Predict the 3D structure of the following.
Amino acid sequence: MAAASGEAVKNKQVLFKDYVTGFPKESDMAVVESTIQLKVPEGSSEILLKNLYLSCDPYMRSRMSKNFTAHPSFVPGSPLTGFGVARVLESGNPNFKKGEFVWGLTGWEEYSLISSNQMLFKIEHADVPLSYYTGLLGMPGMTAYAGFHEVASPKKGEKVFISAASGAVGQLVGQFAKLAGCYVVGSAGSKEKVDLLKNKFGFDDAFNYKEEQDLNVALKRCFPDGIDIYYENVGGKLLDAVLLNMKMNGRIPVCGMISQYNLDQHEGVTNLVHIIYKQIRIQGFTVNEYFQLYPKFLGFVLPHIKEGKIVYVEDKAEGLENGPAALVGLYNGCNVGKQVVVVAHE
Ligand SMILES: NC(=O)c1ccc[n+]([C@@H]2O[C@H](COP(=O)([O-])OP(=O)(O)OC[C@H]3O[C@@H](n4cnc5c(N)ncnc54)[C@H](OP(=O)(O)O)[C@@H]3O)[C@@H](O)[C@H]2O)c1
């Protein structure tokens, strides 16, 4: 039975315990039960959300570090925060109404009272699975679109390589690249993921980077004439091998470097000199600078979804109590597709 307005109800939460060094562990988080009154305080512009789906994203590791410069850290003893999909239960903000579905920044808990200046988008198209707004139609989708179309400026016929290619971002970059008429190869960490790349997402070729003796040889096999665009998700040894295989005037949109996030000492890259001779443009970006393109992105992607030209694979962990394992699993490649935590079904 649905809880009534003003009622005090149990609120399961995932708390961040303390700052992390090295690989995060499930025990860095605690699942607890508190209570919450289902009411927006009188005169407040806050929004009360019932969380439905939470997004596990690699950047959340940086928020577990003390004094990370690019993001504020999680607060020990408080719930994790991140992207999610929710239903509005009550709202002191006239832009959001009771019953509406939204996606944006929320808490890792069943119910969240969030301030109205949090990043929150109203879901206008609910005829697709709502969980897609944690991935394909949310932050990762926007990241794939911005990094590929805005940063890399692809041209028809170009050769594109994508790392962490079966994940939330990578599977989309590959499909966007195919729609743009490119030749597309991806790398991933298991046979199952490589099969998905070739048989579900339509990549032209793919390889399991964990089984290759020599990454340079693997890339030469897939790209005898070199790579025009490398969509960088992992960094480290793979980036080093890619630099040897880039073509003249190649572009490397640097989206992420997940292989480095849990290392105290980052790995060095030795082939940087190729940037000069091949006049390679390497450009880091964060999705935050591109959210103004969200309506344009939806206009591009929704018709493709409806026509079945873009598909999306999700890996759903059922229940908030399974959230910590799902999040930690990202850094061990456990997720097959976009990792989502199902808090409640709509
Ligand atoms: N710039 C931005 O604004 C922005 C926004 C969103 C995401 N990102 C970045 O985009 C990248 C992909 O994110 P996502 O959400 O799509 O995650 P994801 O690919 O769905 O999940 C992470 C995957 O990374 C791979 N991985 C983990 N450790 C690795 C290692 N040591 N070496 C190589 N691969 C490793 C694993 O796949 P395998 O089994 O294939 O190894 C794992 O499944 C991340 O680097 C993330 O930080 C950036």
In short: The chain is about 20% helix and 25% strand. The CA atoms of residues 211 and 293 lie 38 Å apart.
